[in-house]
Queue: 2 jobs
Job 1
Amino acid sequence: MKNLLITAAVLFVLISFVSAPAEAGEGKKVKVVYHFNSDDQKIHKAGLINIQNHLEAVGKENVEIIAVLHGQGLTMLQKGKTEDDNFLRVENLKKQGVKIGVCNITIQRQKLNKDELFVGNEKLKDSDIVPSGVAELAKLQSEGYAYIKP
């Protein structure tokens, strides 16, 4: 009888471990933050394509993606400093639900006019601006966002 109880307890524990990950993931969106702080157009393009591939691989309904830009990463939103294709990529990703977090400290330090920053063909919105890019990255990671640096 004792062996039967031990066997039942072991089976219960094993079943709990096997089923827990599936249950925990059901209905939950994967949260991801992509980090841009370079003015390298090839990195911008590769990162934006990575985000699009990410959406296509898992479905936009299954993932929450935020792209955080600070420092030289803001060149991605400046006409004349980025490739036109990148503007269109950013605009397309935003339409698919990707959020943009643009560092206000960078805007101030670089003396940028936020009316000259664009998400595709639309001007940057106040809702796209975060107080600090690095602080936003740390906050999002503490909230369980996976960190990706293209």
Note: The first strand starts at residue 30 and ends at 36.
Job 2
Amino acid sequence: MKLFILIALGAFALIFFLVLLGRRRDRAREAAIDNFTFPDGIAQRVRRRYPHLTDEDMTLIFAGLRQYFQMARLARRRMLSMPSQVVDAAWHEFILFTRNYQVFCDRALGRYLHHTPAEAMRGPQDAQEGIRRAWRLACGLENISPRTPPRLPLIFALDDKLRIPDGLRYSLNCLAAAALAQTASSDGSITYCASHIGCGSGGGDGGCSSDSGCSCGDGGGCGGD
């Protein structure tokens, strides 16, 4: 009986130690993302593609990129779609700084985060699950209710806020955004229903229908892992 108690106490102590170690590791990785200085060349390359962006805009884009990496940290190797074209562009340019990116991934994620093009995902269901997971995690990072959001999380709002041609745009009220969707289609951008991702208020004006003026796809480009 005493031996059983000793074994149980030892197992409890080991589990407690592993949990504590895991939390310390997560805090260290979270800080590594928040405190990392991105290479200067990323901004220059992103602005070649989108010349209208200002220094202030690039600050927001890097904040969105940090948010995506925090989401990837929390997703723990599960598929995570990219909700922003301009953040995706910054991520792609970051990967080209191969040594910096490898060091960052090791410190911030404990693994190399692969950039997976949307067309290379295993199927439509993977992309849908990935964007829904991205929405939940982004909302959680900003303390936004994913089901009744008063606003969009940063990474979901950036393409529209920064007027990104071919951007991914999201609306909390898709019927009210019908005119925007018609206008945006001329530059290759698409407006998606945030409620259709499964996180809006749902029903009524918040729903997504074929005549709402919004795309009824879930929205999301490249993904990680």
Note: The radius of gyration is 20 Å.
